[in-house]
Write a structure and sequence with these properties.
- By secondary structure, the chain is α+β, with helices and mostly antiparallel strands.
- It has one domain: HIT-like (HIT family, subunit A).
- A 6-stranded antiparallel beta sheet has the order 1-2-3-5-4-6.
- A hairpin with an 8-residue loop joins β2 and β3.
- α2 packs antiparallel against α4.
- The chain is globular.
């Protein structure tokens, strides 16, 4: 896409550097997120030139299933032995960077990159789309249409979205919420199913 500024291609450039690749094959590459929002945060990129979920077509469904299968294997090998938290899998429906990328993130959300309500909403609202939902939409409608204004309203950028995804207690401040999460984490409360689509 010619109208994308150079900085939006930073993830694509990183994915082409062998030293950044944690896994690579003919179809995908897996990288660590450079600004993690959870203790474990990785990105799965297709090598096919697909920029966003809106560029997906039904012909990409096998690729999406492949990305999911490889992601699950990566999670079992690299993340599960190190945390009791669930691992969420999903796309941002309005991404910051181009080349489609599937987030794999532990739902402790305890990392330096999780520092704004914007970031929180990016993983705890419908702004975060599980690949199975993407597949379902492609099968039923043939394409995924996103209204960017509506998507950003869904994600939110204010304290109204700050509630614990374990016990649902509401907070007005992200720092307080993160402290609350660390207390819960000791009790393994985040080893639960939730709306953003955990793997297991």
């Amino acid at each position: 896409m010619g109208d994308n500024p150079s900085w939006r291609k930073g993830l694509l450039r990183a994915s082409e550097r062998p030293e950044k690749q944690l896994y690579s094959d003919d179809l995908i590459v897996i990288l660590a997120d450079h600004a993690p929002k959870g203790r474990f945060h990785y990105l799965v990129l297709p090598k096919a030139p697909i920029d966003t979920v809106e560029d997906l077509t039904p012909s990409h469904i096998p690729l999406l299933r492949y990305m999911m299968a490889k992601s699950e294997k990566f999670i079992e090998r690299e993340i599960r032995p190190k945390t009791r938290c669930d691992v969420l899998m999903g796309f941002h429906i309005v991404p910051t960077f181009i080349r489609l990328h599937l987030h794999l993130i532990s739902n402790d959300f305890d990392a330096p990159g999780m520092k704004s309500t914007y970031a929180w909403g990016s993983f705890t609202t419908d702004f975060f789309m599980h690949p199975e939902k993407a597949i379902s939409i492609l099968e039923s409608k043939g394409r995924i249409e996103i209204d960017p204004v509506e998507a950003c309203e869904v994600r939110g950028d204010n304290s109204s979205i700050l509630s614990c995804h374990g016990c649902k207690e509401k907070f007005s401040d992200l720092a307080e919420l993160k402290s609350h999460i660390r207390i819960h984490d000791k009790d393994n409360i985040y080893n639960i199913k939730n709306e953003t689509g955990p793997i297991s």
